[in-house]
Every structure is written in C-alpha cells, then in structure tokens.
Write a structure and sequence with these properties.
It contains seven helices and four strands, in the order αααααβαββαβ. It is of the alpha+beta class. The longest helix has 27 residues. The radius of gyration is 27 Å and the shape is elongated. The N terminus is likely disordered.
Length: 216
C-alpha cells in the first residue's frame, strides 16, 4: 500500500506568510466586491446577507485552492465532495450570479498565488460594472400603469398615453361595471401620464407602480 507522505506538508515561516497574505487579500477583495455590489444595486430590497456571502465566498475559496493546487489526489477528492453539494437558494437577479462568480474567481486566483492578476482583474471588473451601470441607467424608467375605468372608456384612456413611445398592454380585465388594464410604460415624466389618463371621462383611478423589467 502507498503511504501518505507528510514530509512536504510542513508549514514554514514563508508558507505561513503566504497564507496570511492570501487570506488578508481575500478579505480586502471580498469587501471591495461587496461595496461594488451595494453601489450598483438597482433592486428594491438590498440584502446584506448576500453581500456578506460574497465576502465569505472569496475567503473560503482561497484556502481551498491553496490546499489542492499542489496535490492531484486532493483535487480529485474536492471535486467529488463538491459534486454532492446542492444549493437550494434561488438567485432572484441574474446579475447576482455574476457577482458570485466574481467572488469565486478572485478566491481561486488568490489561492493559486496569482496576486497581481487578481488585483488587476478586480479593478478591471469593477470599472466595467460602474461604466455599464451608468450606461444602462440613462434609459427611461419602467412603470406599470393600472387603469380602472367604465366600459367604453378604455380606448380613450389608451389614446391619452399615445405620446409614450414605449408602452405595452400586459393585461386587460373586463366585466359589466368596470374595465381594468395593466400597461407597461417607459417614461421620464410619469406624473404627466397619470394626469392625462385621469382627465379622460369615465376613468375612476390610475395607479403607477415602479417596475423593473427583466429586459432592462
């Protein structure tokens, strides 16, 4: 039987310094990713727990890669162990997945000792995120306009928002006493749209709800 050779697994002062430096950089980069995520978050409810997860993912991945980078046996064993892990938490925003992969990738680079590459990649990705966030933020805001009106007034209500270029009828419910329509609109002047709709005879009320479309 082959015996496990522990002679190459001793911890020297230089290796201790490398471990400490790798973990310290992992913490700093993980916190940096967290602040980038918080600064560019566009959702309604910010999750501090997800931000903490990004920091922990960077910290946890770093020592794992440090353990397996010089051992094929440990690498295969780690792959087998990770293959039985199942993550049950659903990711609400597809962009959150990119942040998770960002944190994991930085942990892998730091664990492999690629400190300069990790620093360059962190700064470069952060700059790209800020640029793309500012570009996409220039578009008109997306809203859901809910109109309740009397039967026969629905066409006049729709005609009142003809000036809005980006609009789409999402649903329409009709009964004998009321018509209810939900319309997706994109505009920078939502108050003017509501005022025009309310000025139509037969319109009972108009409700405007901030809406984050999946295509934005």
């Amino acid at each position: 039987m082959n015996r496990l050779d522990l002679s190459n697994m001793s911890i020297t002062p230089s290796s201790t310094l490398t471990i400490a430096l790798s973990l310290a950089l992992a913490f700093v980069i993980g916190v940096f990713i967290f602040f980038v995520y918080r600064a560019n978050y566009k959702g309604v409810m910010f999750s501090n727990s997800f931000g903490l997860t990004l920091v922990l993912m960077t910290l946890i991945t770093t020592p794992v890669v440090m353990c397996i980078r010089d051992s094929i046996q440990l690498s295969m064993g780690m792959v087998g162990a990770l293959s039985i892990v199942r993550f049950r938490t659903a990711v609400k925003d597809p962009l959150d997945t990119a942040y998770m992969f960002w944190a994991l990738t930085m942990g892998i680079m730091l664990g492999a000792g690629q400190f300069f590459l990790a620093a360059v990649a962190t700064v470069g990705i952060a700059a790209l995120i800020f640029v793309l966030s500012r570009i996409t933020a220039k578009g008109p805001n997306c809203f859901l306009l809910v109109i309740r009106c009397e039967p026969g007034s629905d066409q006049q209500a729709l005609a009142a928002i003809k000036g809005v270029k980006n609009q789409k009828l999402k649903s329409k419910s009709v009964n004998r006493s009321r018509v209810e329509m939900t319309i997706e609109i994109r505009t920078d002047k939502p108050d003017g749209v509501v005022s025009r709709v309310l000025s139509v005879d037969g319109v009972e009320d108009a409700t405007l709800v901030s809406y984050q479309s999946e295509t934005v």
